Amino acid sequence: MFTGIIEHLGLVAENSPSETGRRLVVRTELDPGAMRPPRAGDSVSVNGCCLTLVLDPADTRFTFDVIPETLAKTTLGCWTPGRRVHLELAATAGTPLGGHLVQGHVDGVGRVLSVRTDGERRLRIAPPAGVQDSLIPKGSIAVDGVSLTLAAVDDAGAWFEVALIPTTLDRTTLGALGVGDAVNIEADMIAKAVAAVARRMRSRTPG
């Protein structure tokens, strides 16, 4: 479990085929002493994808094995060396919940439709199929692992908008996104649960 508050940025050092999918190596940009020291078996959110460290970090390199299911639902398969990515270690009982509850289970890939910069920076994003019922105005969403508030939602679910505050622009890569860019989307887990129950109830209603 995560909170969507990015702790650190990393650089993709390697993304190569493996027997089980792909082997991903991410190099951290700062002294690992600035983070809680992770160990093999720990969960790390990498651009919103919950991945498991397969080795104790060597120097500043985090190593992960990525399975086909993750590759099918995220942008991870197309990451190339040098790409900057968001890193967040799993939350503990003492972690401040500054964002919202994020599982790291990406629902799918969204696409940036427009970028607005007049007065505030806003991204309009087309969500992946299946999450439209979970998009609630002023609710929460994770975009590439970043906890954001839904500033606007299309009634038909064709798009949603998020506003990026200066702190988010300073600490994440979201400010560099442009039209057509792909992003990992995870809808709020509580909204998804409510939407799932509502769908089941409708399916059981006669006529």
Question: What would you say this structure looks like, in words?
Answer:
With 207 residues, the protein is mainly beta. It has 2 domains: 8-89, Elongation Factor Tu (Ef-tu), domain 3; 108-202, Elongation Factor Tu (Ef-tu), domain 3. Helix content is 14%, strand content 37%. It has 3 helices and 12 strands; from the N terminus they run E-E-E-E-E-H-E-E-E-E-E-E-H-E-H. It has helices at 68-73, 166-171, 189-204; strands spanning 8-18, 21-28, 43-46, 49-52, 61-66, 84-89, 108-116, 121-126, 140-143, 146-153, 160-164, 182-187. The strands form 2 sheets. The chain has a 6-stranded antiparallel β-sheet. Strands 7-8-11-10-9-12 form a 6-stranded antiparallel barrel. It starts with 7 loop residues before the first strand and ends with a helix.
Which descriptors apply to this entry?
2 domains, six-stranded antiparallel β-barrel, 207 residues, Elongation Factor Tu (Ef-tu), domain 3, 14% helix, 3 helices, 12 strands, mainly beta
CATH architecture of the largest domain: Beta Barrel
Percent of residues in beta strands? 35-45%
**What is the third-level CATH name, the topology of the largest domain?**
Elongation Factor Tu (Ef-tu), domain 3
Oligomer: single chain
Largest sheet: spatial strand order: 4-3-6-1-2-5
Distance from first to last alpha carbon: 40 Å
Radius of gyration from CA coordinates: 17 Å
Class from helix and strand fractions: mainly beta
Helix % is 10-25%
Structure summary, number of beta strands = 12
Order of helices and strands: EEEEEHEEEEEEHEH
CATH secondary-structure class of the largest domain: Mainly Beta
| Mean model confidence by pLDDT | 91
**Quick one: biggest sheet?**
6 strands, antiparallel
Q: How many domains is the backbone divided into?
A: 2
Residue stretches low in confidence (pLDDT < 50, at least 5 long) are: none
